[in-house]
Amino acid sequence: MGEKVTIKVNDNGSLRVTGDVELVDAAGNVFETKPSFSLCRCGHSSNKPFCDGTHRKIGFESTPRAK
Fold first, then answer.
1. CA-CA distance, 32 to 29, in Å (whole number)?
2. Sign of torsion, CA 39 42 45 48?
3. Any residues with CB less than 8 A from the CB of 66 and at least 6 apart, and which?
4. Among 19, 30, 53, 60, which is least packed, fewest CB within 10 Å?
């Protein structure tokens, strides 16, 4: 079994993905990724689905917690 994949929900920011994961679009095309990368959560990145830091500029706020 491979390395466990971790997805961290960053406060007021991105989803940080770490581990051996394949990111695929709706048509089945594979995105090129690194061993650790961030996905946009605010919806305003100019590099979707990846985070480009725009959440800081627009004041995105979200701090969900597991229950």
1. 10
2. positive
3. none
4. 30
Q: Give CA–CA dist 19/34, Å, rounded.
A: 9
Instruction: Write out pLDDT tens, residues 15-34.
Output: 999 999 999 999 999 999 99
CA-CA distance, 28 to 37, in Å (whole number)? 19
Candidates 30, 29, 58, 32; CA nearest to 43 is: 58
Which pLDDT tens digit goes with each residue over 28-65? 999 999 999 999 999 999 999 999 999 999 999 999 99
